[in-house]
Write a structure and sequence with these properties.
The complex is a heterodimer of chains A (241) and B (386).
Chain A: H1 2-19, E1 24-25, H2 27-42, E2 45-57, E3 63-75, E4 80-86, E5 89-95, E6 99-104, E7 109-114, H3 119-130, H4 144-151, E8 154-163, E9 166-174, E10 178-185, E11 192-199, E12 205-216, E13 234-235, E14 237-240
Parallel strand pairs in A: 1-8, 7-13
Antiparallel strand pairs in A: 2-3, 2-12, 3-4, 4-5, 5-6, 6-7, 8-9, 9-10, 10-11, 11-12
Chain B: H1 2-22, H2 35-42, H3 54-57, H4 60-66, H5 78-82, H6 120-123, H7 129-140, E1 154-156, H8 157-160, E2 204-205, E3 216-218, E4 221-224, E5 249-250, E6 258-259, E7 261-262, E8 273-276, E9 279-283, E10 288-291, E11 297-299, E12 307-311, E13 314-319, E14 322-327, E15 330-334, E16 336-337, E17 341-342, E18 350-354, E19 357-362, E20 365-372, E21 375-380, E22 382-385
Parallel strand pairs in B: 2-16
Antiparallel strand pairs in B: 3-4, 4-22, 5-10, 6-8, 7-11, 8-9, 9-10, 11-15, 12-13, 13-14, 14-15, 17-21, 18-19, 19-20, 20-21
Classes of the chains: A alpha+beta (241), B alpha+beta (386).
Chain lengths: 241, 386
């Protein structure tokens, strides 16, 4: 009896610990995020453009803004193509379900690696092992809303706002390090329109993205996701983190 | 007594659940965290285009046992569970998954997000069997072109860096980084020549100069350079008519070749280096093969093509990838020093992508491509653990 009691007490400890966290989740905000994730989860393929503005520290520790434009295509569970051009140069990612290639147009060199079988696993693994940055990848995690609920202490719905003549739902998520604001389009489809991440712990650096030209379930030939090296491009090695 | 025994299973079960609840995995990925999505990646194979189909792939009794305290599935979403499961998904992310409670009826904040629902992920058999079957068959079946696809060499810093490199026992271990992938070609190196770079001869002496620029940080290391990164492709340089790249093979050496003495060589291996016109050779069964200059080798003369380079305010001579210091007996091979700028690199290097930069690597030495007065050069990088 005594040991049962101890076991039961042990069982309660984590629950107590967690229930002490005070989280402020707005049901409207969660509902909107859920709907958006539902739409994204139901997509079989998608293409969109992304305009990024990224703050970085320069050599003298001043904040320098960098801009880039990406075109991103997902197709099925295991195809991804990203082309990015901006301050940091021109580069692309090709993922065909077997191999992922990072190609730098400026350096004319590339890295090809065997990859996990799904796009999301690939994104996760490449980010963890090689610091590959996939723009706006957060939105495509199947558990996006759950992740937001876990990671942030407060998620609020701030009302309808107009961005680029599109009516959007404005949502703000806050924890001690980050302030994330999302604008989710209330036009035909409930898809992300804009987001800002403010790094409160790093001089309020901002990462800002604007989505445009959503194309829902387009037919994309599989071959575009396979990388074919230009004749002069060099395959180079890569250092694991 | 018998009841106690019967309870052991239950108690073990409770302790397991406790462990699962106490250590939820919160791993970071991308800009925001995606603890759940680690499993989420696997949820691709749950079968449905949407989490609505989950009940089909989840044994109900498992669910009952792993969610004892929370019982979070809100009554407000019954329609989700009744949705018939869809045909195998082509969804780009396997469909939206929801594990957290969405029960907002209770406005008590502390109740809202309950992480204890999370371990369900770990206990849930996450793969829909039919789909896995598909995948395995895909994997087992040889795919077109797979074997021909060249993949990059994956370098691992545990092999390429650290004091182990200076450990003599490491010598001769071939330090090319393990080629983890199945790619069958190492592009930068002509393997037919059997170039082996000896780590002992490529370690970098730290520079005591102050670095005014912040290092490039990657994977827990800082890569320090005095000059900014300026990419130019690696093109091996040939130092005049006598220069022979590493791996160059000859059956006999000229009579002018000398056997070099290696100063302070506490090394156990009794390799005998032959030196001729700036090139070092090791004897093999059939002849001699050109190798990297061994640190500590004392020679009386170096080719006239050797260039002067400044190293910590002293002048070194650089030829064929080796650094020489002048002394009373002639010249002695010294290790590379961080911050040294060289105009050219020999054959045998490998371009390596390190985060967003591409360096040329020779064993332990990383060269950063730079540009000085419009001329392409390289600076030896100082790598420090952060």
């Amino acid at each position: 009896m005594k040991s049962t009691f101890i076991a039961f007490s042990l069982f309660l400890i984590p629950l107590l610990g967690i229930s002490q966290e005070t989280k402020d989740m707005d049901s409207t905000a969660i509902f909107i995020l859920d709907k958006m994730s539902d739409v994204i989860g139901d997509l079989e393929s998608v293409t969109f453009d992304l305009n990024n503005s990224i703050d970085k520290f320069d050599d003298d520790n001043n904040i320098e803004k960098q801009y880039s434009t990406s075109t991103i295509s997902f197709s099925g569970p295991n195809k991804l193509l990203i082309r990015t051009e901006g301050t940091e140069g021109k580069k692309g990612y090709w993922f065909d379900g077997e191999f992922v290639t990072y190609y730098s147009f400026d350096e004319n060199n590339y890295v090809t690696l065997e990859a996990p079988e799904t796009t999301i696993e690939m994104i996760d693994e490449m980010h963890a092992n090689y610091d590959f940055q996939f723009p706006a990848a957060d939105f495509f995690y199947p558990s996006f809303t759950d992740d937001m609920m876990d990671q942030f202490d407060s998620i609020k719905y701030l009302g309808k706002k107009v961005i680029d003549e599109e009516e959007c739902y404005h949502i703000m998520a806050i924890n001690k390090d980050l302030n994330v604001q999302l604008w989710i389009s209330n036009e035909t489809y409930l898809l992300p329109k804009h987001f800002v991440i403010i790094y409160k712990n790093k001089s309020n650096l901002q990462y800002e993205s604007n989505f445009s030209n959503w194309s829902i379930n387009p037919t994309i030939p599989d071959s575009v996701f396979s990388f074919f090296a230009p004749p002069t491009a060099r395959l180079i090695s890569i250092l694991k983190k | 007594m018998t009841t106690n025994r019967l309870n052991i299973k239950h108690r073990l079960g409770i302790i397991l659940v406790f462990l699962a609840l106490a250590f939820p995995s919160d791993l970071l990925a991308q800009r925001m965290g995606h603890g759940a999505s680690r499993g989420g990646g696997h949820s691709m194979s749950r079968g449905g285009g949407h989490s609505m189909s989950r009940p089909a792939s989840r044994p109900t009794n498992n669910r009952a046992t792993t969610r004892p305290a929370t019982n979070t599935r809100p009554a407000s979403r019954p329609s989700h569970t009744t949705t018939p499961s869809r045909t195998p998904s082509k969804s780009i992310n396997g469909g939206h998954t929801k594990n957290n409670s969405r029960d907002f009826s209770n406005r008590n904040k502390s109740n809202i997000p309950n992480k204890s629902t999370r371990p369900v992920n770990t206990n849930t058999p996450s793969r829909d069997k039919s789909k896995v079957g598909d995948r395995t068959s895909n994997n087992s079946a040889p795919k077109l072109n797979t074997n021909n696809r060249k993949t990059s060499n994956i370098k691992d810093k545990s092999i390429n860096r650290g004091d182990a490199a200076r450990d003599k026992s490491n010598i001769g271990n071939g330090n090319r980084g393990n080629n983890i992938n199945s790619g069958n070609r190492n592009i930068n190196i002509d393997n037919s020549r059997n170039v082996t770079i000896n780590n002992r001869n490529t370690y970098v002496r730290p520079s005591y100069a102050h670095y005014s620029r912040p290092p490039y940080r990657y994977g827990g290391y800082g890569y320090y350079c005095h000059r900014p990164y300026y990419y130019h492709p690696y093109r091996p340089f040939y130092w005049g008519p006598y220069y022979h790249p590493w791996g160059y093979f000859v059956t006999t050496l000229a009579t002018t070749a000398i056997i070099v003495s290696i100063v302070n060589d506490s090394n156990d291996d009794d390799d005998e280096y032959h030196y001729e016109n700036g090139t070092y050779y090791l004897k093999t069964e059939d002849g001699f093969v050109a190798v990297q200059a061994p640190v500590g080798a004392q020679v009386s003369d170096i080719p006239k093509e050797a260039e002067k380079v400044e190293v910590n305010n002293t002048t070194n001579y650089y030829y064929g990838g080796a650094f020489y210091e002048q002394n009373k007996d002639g010249y002695i091979v010294v290790p590379a020093t961080a911050g040294t700028i060289v105009p050219n690199l020999p054959e045998g290097g490998e371009e390596v992508k390190i985060g967003e930069v591409t360096y040329v690597q020779f064993g332990e030495t990383y060269y950063q491509p730079i540009q000085i007065d419009g001329k392409n050069m390289y600076e030896i990088v100082e790598v420090k653990k952060e």
